[in-house]
Amino acid sequence: NAGVTQTPKFQVLKTGQSMTLQCAQDMNHEYMSWYRQDPGMGLRLIHYSVGAGITDQGEVPNGYNVSRSTTEDFPLRLLSAAPSQTSVYFCASSTGTSGPQETQYFGPGTRLLVL
Amino acid sequence: KQEVTQIPAALSVPEGENLVLNCSFTDSAIYNLQWFRQDPGKGLTSLLLIQSSQREQTSGRLNASLDKSSGRSTLYIAASQPGDSATYLCAVGDYKLSFGAGTTVTVRA
Fold first, then answer.
1. What tens digit of pLDDT does each residue of A37-86 get?
2. Contact A31/B94, CB-based, under 8 Å?
3. Quick check: B93 and B2 in contact, CB under 8 A?
4. φ, ψ of residue A53 in degrees (nearest 5)
5. Phi-psi category of A50—alpha, beta or left, where left has phi over 0 and alpha has psi -120 to 50?
6. pLDDT score for A42
7. Which residue of B has its CA nearest to A107?
């Protein structure tokens, strides 16, 4: 198993540009989520999904869109990038079968710089 | 809103010393608490998960305790090694985790 994979590893955008951060998992996990990590702060939840076709907002959803058409993939879209979205983005997944008492598996992250 | 705090933000110890990392949270109604390790430029690796009904979990040199009534968890790492140098994050919640900012540990050889 490759686990949770994220692409790209690093991206530079100009203000106003759009892009999609890719996240995929090959563990047949139902639950997937996106977090952002900023210096001196803990990870903050952006969006999450409890299964294909089901998504919901987390703590900091503004400026981001998600969709979940398959179990494996959970892309994060930035519609119009802003410098405040400069951050490291992490995707995570868990089986979803045992409820909240589950370990979450994290991808290696995508570093995004918005100029 | 759940607030998670980790103090200190950084810690430097000589090799062989035991490490004690602290985590506090404001809402005691938690499903579980997880401790993660993050190496520079890398993702998070889960170390220990303590369910809300448990008081501690152990894995090798690592032991984590949970006191819901006081809103605290402690991660103990016995006989630290230079390879233990990393940032340690605690997180509480169900599917939606609330994270502390982490404690960056340096173990000096």
1. 998 888 999 999 999 999 999 999 999 999 999 999 999 999 999 999 99
2. no
3. yes
4. 85, 0
5. alpha
6. 86
7. B43
Compare CB distances from A106 to B32, B41, B44 and report the shortest one's residue: B44
Q: Which residue of A has its CA nearest to B4?
A: A42
Q: String of b and e for B11-35 (b: at least 16 CB within 10 Å)? A: bebeeeeebebebbbeeeebbbbbb
Q: Do A33 and B49 touch (CB under 8 A)?
A: no
Please compute Rg for chain B using Cα positions.
13
CB contact under 8 Å between A106 and B31, yes or no, is: no
Q: Which of B45, B72, B76 is nearest to B62 (CA)?
A: B76
Nearest to A51 by CA among B49, B95, B75: B95
Q: CA dist B108 to B15, B25, B70, B97, Å?
A: 5, 30, 32, 32
Which residues on chain A place their C-beta less than 8 Å from a C-beta of chain B? 4, 31, 33, 35, 40-45, 48, 50, 58, 90, 92, 94, 96, 99-109
